[in-house]
Amino acid sequence: MQAKEKDVFITAQLSARPIGKTNHLQEKRAMQELAQCMVEDPEDILPRFTDLAMEITSTNAGGVSLLEPDPAPGFFRWRYLRGAAEQYENFLAPRNFSPCGKTLELNAPALLSYPERYYSWIADSGISAAEVLLVPISVPKGDIFGTLWSISNDPGHFHRGHVRALTELSHFVAAALRMTVTARKMQRMHAHSVA
Q1: Second label for 101, Cα 20 to 30 Å away, from 1, 10, 116, 146?
Q2: Is the pLDDT of residue 186 over 90?
Q3: How far apart are the C-alpha atoms of 110 and 163, rounded to whole Å?
Q4: Contact present, 57 and 170 (Cβ < 8 Å)
């Protein structure tokens, strides 16, 4: 029997879970590393974001779902996958019926338990996860890029400390992506004005 959406979205449970020991130095270094990526190799910021998210949350699988709006209503392309998720690189997920779509709709982090119980296309793909933590990658009142997600095979793994750390990194990454997009637009405008 298929579960209901409310059965797989367990974000409310985070408030009752104890916060593990916070490694502020690790989080500071992650932010510094992403800043360095932004300056030296902006194309590497999302793969590195995935790696750092997995390190911070002590998980062994994760990735980024990038929103591709065309054709409407759009879809998500899974990129920079790590660990057990690697085999699904470039997988396409529907925008309107997916954990990522719901996370962007809520514009807030979401915690899911065995999402394949509700999302039949996940079950059909052979994917199973005890918990998935999703964080939107978006700029307030600005561009929406997609979501970061981290997977744990252990129920009860994620806590509010993970959510806080990944949300902070996500805001930084979104701002970096927005700067990259703006820079590309300016380069194209400059190229057209010179031509």
Answers
A1: 1
A2: no
A3: 9
A4: no
What's this model's pTM, rounded to 2 decimal places?
0.86
Both structure tokens of 147: 């979501």
Q: Which of 45-54, 89-98, 117-126, 185-194 comes out lowest in average pLDDT?
A: 185-194
Contacts for 49 with CB less than 8 Å, ≥ 6 apart: 34, 64, 80, 148, 169, 170, 173
Q: What single-letter amino acid sits at 79?
A: R
Cis before 47 (ω within 30):
no
For residues 146-170, one letter each, b for 16 or more C-beta atoms within 10 angstroms of the residue's C-beta and e for the rest, the string is bbbbbbbeeeebbbebbbebbeebb
Does 81 have pLDDT greater than 80? Answer: yes
- Sign for the pseudo-dihedral over CA of 101, 178, 162, 126: positive
Please tell me whether residue 81 adopts helix, strand or coil conformation. Answer: strand
